[in-house]
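A protein record pairs a chain with a discrete description of its three-dimensional fold. The shape at a given residue is found from the number at the same position. Here is what such a record looks like in full:
>
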Amino acid sequence: MSSALRGAGPVLPVTAVVALLALPAPPGEGGSAGGTVADAVSALVVLWCVARTVRGARRPLTRNAAVVLGLPVIGIAVAAVGATTASAGMTGLVRYLQIFVLVPAAVLMLVRDRRDFRLVAWSLIGLALFQGTLGVYQYVTGTGASYMGSDVRAVGTFGPTDVMGMATVVSYGLVCAVALALGPASPRRRQIALACALLLTVPLALSFSRGAWIATVVACGAQLGLAGVRNALRALAAMAAAAVVLVGGLGIGSQMLSERVTSITQVSDAPDQSVTDRYTMWAAAVDMWRDAPVSGVGLKAFPDHRDSHASLALSSASDTGGAGAKFSRQPLLSPHNMYLLVLGEQGLLGLCTLVGSWAAFLLLGMRRLTRVRGGAGADCALVACGLLLWQLVDFSYADIGGPSTVLMAVVLGLVAWWSLSGRALSAPMPGEAPR
């Protein structure tokens, strides 16, 4: 055990960031007030990575990696200069650089090989199982966040002010588990990964998060298609059987789930208030962009400009409660769409540089996946491409904010490693071989 830990030494700080997200979120708006322990440790990881690089006197990133990871800095820096206040600009600059540049770059440099990559992936699954188990307990005992008048919404340790936190964590774990179940590994490891994926479908369903459901279906569907017809059919049969048993046979949240799924299509035909608020804020973000099309209205400026651009249909706050918290009204401070948030606050410059970086990850990652399909490293390819697809789809329904945001940075680091690191395509490691 000690030798194994020593061998994984450089990547252990990354897994520590993941593990610390099992701690309860601090009080505040989704735990974002003042950051979290995981945020602080992620900063230490970046500093430690810099120290290792300086001590080793080696080039930290390839030219391609530096360009792709550094591209968002342009739009972020320009938008920070145009922020409403200097403090808001500095806070937004630090947060965006942490999530989209610094932590991903640190993960890219600390993950040395596919063994390290899988260790981080399994840590994501472990966190998802922990948070998901707590979420199921919250649903069963009625101690979750308030939903439709009952305290049944699974939120894990993230609390009612960050209802997307557990859904995001569980989705990451499920996507990783599906990829590891489809990739080349021993039958026992594939069976464990498949079992984890099936178990995680339950808390994901009980999160009642429509955006996470859609993103997970898209990401896992793409993974199944990329893994081959035989593997896809086997995994689909297992997941279908689990859905029938858990939802149909045991009746886990069947009525609420049915109503929640139906609400996805209710955009113009009597939508619920959350849908109305979301589309109203989307329109407000687009209107902000029209006022400042190139550089946007400035980092963290959406709340300041919201009321002057939103229609009267916006309720301006949502009801939160349950999971150990008192009832409160949580202000709606973002459009819950990452693309529109960036467009409104950073303009076309910020949107093109940030999305351009993600597009490069996707194109390079998919190209590498085609090279290793069915062989050593295919599981890593499916993990990285699946996580990126999930994130890109989920960004249509969510944006950054809350304790789980730092986990997004770790995920982007895994994606960057697969897409840009030369070590991702190295020769098969001992005990690693195609099926």
Summary: Confidence is low (pLDDT under 50) at residues 29-33. Residues 12-23+33-266+333-424 form one domain. The CA atoms of residues 177 and 193 lie 5 Å apart.
